[in-house]
Amino acid sequence: MDKEIKVLLVDDEPHILQFLEMGLVNEGYEVATAPDGITAVAAAETFSPHIVILDVMMPGMDGFEVCRILKKNGSQAAVIMLTAKDEVDDKVKGLKLGADDYVVKPFSFEELLARIQARLRNQFPTLFGEVAIGPFRIDDKRKEIGFQGKVLELSPTEHELLRYMVLNHGIVLSKTLILDKVWGYDFGGEENIVEVYIRSLRDKLGDKEHRLIRTLRGAGYRVDLT
After folding, report:
1. Residue 86: exposure state from Cβ atoms within 10 A (0-12, 13-18, ≥19)
2. What's the pTM?
């Protein structure tokens, strides 16, 4: 990274703020904290974070409202919401308000760190320039993805799908989430379009045994680079 990354942590539980702040500072991030929604909105204005780690369940102004206000105010920060509930309705509500990802409590610091890095590469590629991830090379300036030293011939949708999955490698991505992130919320087609494009990508990657792009029945897909 060419410059320091700013992370705003928002949670009403002091021990969580302290734990995450210590971990992220040790990873080289510049960190600000907020114990409630009102403080978070003000901090976002002055701190201008790249990433906001935002707890959903807070007294007064909850995380959904904070997210809505941040996006209304024009914040370019990626928002990762923390929730104690693994409920689809909550996730959909947050995503529609502009959230970029969800992490369910309890979570490991390593998982959160991976999601932070994925969001940064996705929304702030100029901080990284050309990104090398395992056998992949993602060059956002040239709109190219290389694999094992060769540039892949991809359609625009294939490019966006593979880029999204590689940047989120190791994370299980449901068909619904893939459709939202690659095709958009207003996509009116069938979910099986994802299967069609996954099949095409596997062909172009020579992934006949599905070891690179794995299918997890009932859950979605995951790119494995190990």
Report:
1. exposed
2. 0.61
